[in-house]
Structure prediction request, 66 residues.
Amino acid sequence: MIIQFNGLQETIPRDLNIRQLIKFFDEGDPHLIVEQNARYIYPKDYDTCMVMENDEIEFINPNLGG
Prediction:
């Protein structure tokens, strides 16, 4: 399935929830912020929030600073 991930088109397996998507992309930042279609996803909702075709997903690492 195709999604927009951090501004890039990516192909991922179907039927992933947000927690599984984090594992798929091997993201290890414990302070990760996730947005799905410009909406903040609370960590408590990672298991129930499903990723759908054409979703726009952003992983934001607040500790990278600038």
Observations:
- Residues 2-64 form a domain with the Ubiquitin-like (UB roll) fold (CATH 3.10.20.30).
- The chain has a mean pLDDT of 95.
- Strands lie at 2-5, 8-11, 33-36, 39-41, 56-60.
- The longest helix spans residues 18-24.
